[in-house]
Amino acid sequence: MSVRRAAVALLVPLVVAGLATTPAAAAPDRGAQALHSVRGPVTDENFYFVMADRFANGDTGNDLGGLPADPLVSGFDPTKKGFYNGGDLKGLRGKLDYIQDLGTTSIWLTPSFKNKAVQLEDGPSAGYHGYWITDFTQIDPHLGSNADLAALVDDAHGRGMKVYFDIITNHTADVIGYEEGARKAYTTKDVSPYRTASGQVFDDRDFAGGDNFPALDPASSFPYTPVLDPAEQNLKVPAWLNDTTLYHNRGDTTFVGEDSQYGDFFGLDDLFTENPRVVDGMADIYERWIADFGVDGFRIDTMKHVDDAFWQKFGPRVLKFAREHGKSEFFMFGEVFDTTKSYTSHFTTTDRMQSVLDFPFQAAARQFASRGGATGDLATFFADDDWYTDADSNVYELPTFLGNHDMGRFGGFVTADNPGAGDAEWVSRDRLGHELMYFSRGNPVIYYGDEQGFTGPGGDQDARQTLFASRVPEYLDDDLLGTSSTHATDNFDGDHPLYRAIGDLASATRAHPALRDGTQQSRLSSSDDGVYAFSRIDRSDQREYVVALNNSEAPATAAVPTYTSKRAYSRVYGSGANQLSSGSDGKLSVTVPALSTVVYALDGRIPRSNAAPRISLGLPKPAAASRGRMEVTASVNGSSLYEVTFEARVGGGRWQPVGTDDNAPYRVFHDVSSLAPGTPVEYRAVVLDNAGHTRSASPVETRAPHAKLTIETPTQGGGVRGTVEVRAVADPEKPTHAVAFQRRVAGGPWTTIGTDRTSPAYTVFDDLTPLDLEPGAAVEYRATLLGGAVSETRTVRYAGPPLEMATLRYQRPAGDYGEWGLHMWGDAVDPDVLAQIAWERPWQRARVEDGWAVYEIPLVDDTKPVNFIMHLPSGDTVPDSREPGGDRSFLPINSPEVWIKQGDPTVYTAEPGA
To answer: SS3 of 642, please?
Structure first.
């Protein structure tokens, strides 16, 4: 075991125990302990993410999954992108040479469990993707058998590769219906709370994470009454999944607020993860796959839609089981579809999970490599990696990616961001994105087909092409980067320029491991495009690698700071001089070709420090982005490879490690969400230099902050009428919170309108009708945490009678409006209008006025969003036949008139300037 991983093993018991609040009599304080930055069991994997149905067809005999040939029964139709196309595990197993030659060390499979073959309500569409599970104990027959999986895992292990399973804990297939009707709208816990089998109202959050849960009755405990079709009473496996009281049964989610965790995904049965029976049942399921098949880890679907208490139980239990069964490097990472590090890091700190997919990296990489963004933005992005630093994990464990099966392919982003640029530039930008991903911290993930230049016009089904010859018309229309090939043929080309480029990146990082999990230190950036540079250094050999990436369309030369002066550096990747030397100022002058990357390695090691530098702590403060995290910073004098270990103690208890940061600026975001407001917390820190010297900073003291309340609805400045939903959230969230709401009108006195104790969203409904307000009257709301914080005031206006018409104005500077029109959907627009609209027949303008095309939209409910796409008949290519911005919307009661401009994704609520 390495020194750094031994340190992790020693820390884990302390982390699990939590911060002690009483002194330890038998453990005298030895001062702050200098530790190395954590490197977990997985910091140097190269993942290959495969959708088994879309990779290779090794056995045509399983195409129907043992079902009748009708596509609406079997789900198999190779001419449709939403149905099974024929790929399977045997096909994947037969292509392991192709996968391994790309430099892959770990295969990640989309969910491969038995799915509901077809859901007629969804398109109809089939379960080819694996996310509609009915049997969690067997491989879907369309993909093969459990024996096929065992053979695949054995073959991969024989080659030194790992196999990761994509798993689901949030939902099952759509099997449960409601007596009140199918796929009902979400009903909040405030409108219809849960009731025990005896009829008593309760909040499930009061029991989440515990060992007991109230008994429930399907006939009386839920807002909707769950029912099963007689033919599907025992459809799900294991059998406990057929108990309808183990589901939330609240209707479909809108993916925001409370229903983000309690609602059904388009009807998919949402599990009651707060119930310990569900926690235990899911852990049992996935422990069997570890024990029986030796899978090496899990990617966990929809992690953000499951409560914290579930992860705090599930993660440590499954990890312990895996390690007890010989999987010392077992690794789990979750899908948290969000680009805010203060939020995504919550799951690896508060929730005790190992890692999450790095969605923030995907956004930053696209901005840098595809859109030519300012290099300073990338430097800021990496500086915020400190959000992930705690005692047993950090950002080096995160899997990084450029595109995926949900959001779309990187090749598609590159072509959309650079219309008309041409294949050479598209390939260069695609390669630049992969260079950033391979040389920066984290574990790179290649989405199958990206190495063959796959593009596609969007996400979901449009990004799920087959590597074997396709018969899907939409896929046959796609362009491929770097090749004249099409989707009409197999695309397993080992000579494709992107396949070779990715293989070269894997080879370079294999030859120079510091480029994968060495310390990453930002070196050079600016407020414009051009060169962004960082260093990678491994603690053991102290060799500095300088990575310089140029996202501009012209060669650029930059003076990159290093830890050495007048020392030689050799080129190990890219094009340029074979050798360079740093100047007396320690800067290395590097020339980087356009849209390219170069890497130079120090000949020798960084000089050892003579003494540890001076270190001091700043005043800790609640992090602006998360009140449950305390930002603690350290100032370190000098310039070399330093590591700073932060420690904390609560109320005079034991000092315990918070985390170790190995790159400047040095800081941690300590999780204090479990502490009562006002609890005293002390911090200290010690710096470790590259020669083993240490120096400590004087301790500083602060107190745990109060929670912050934020009103989510109604919208600031928006319109309201009748009964108004007023909703607030608390940061940090605790089941013990109680929130009171107040309202005032036209600057009058504040009036209490209700109190809510039901987490995670606090809601009251305020009926304004008795007040007989005039249209335009100002109404203010605020929320108060009982015994604590007060929210900012939210001001809205009282709306007049319901609107019958909304107006959208669209500007094309050339006036070439032609047949540009609106594709619309949702509950706001008059159904008679929607009946006239089709993709080949968008809603047309009423007139052109002052250079703007005017679209009049008849309404039936101005409180619901108008969802729209501006495009030409049947047009779906941005920007030629469809405007950017994807699915856009506006709320008529807030903004009855909106403006959009050609090439601009923004929906303006006031006329924009020219």
So the answer is: coil
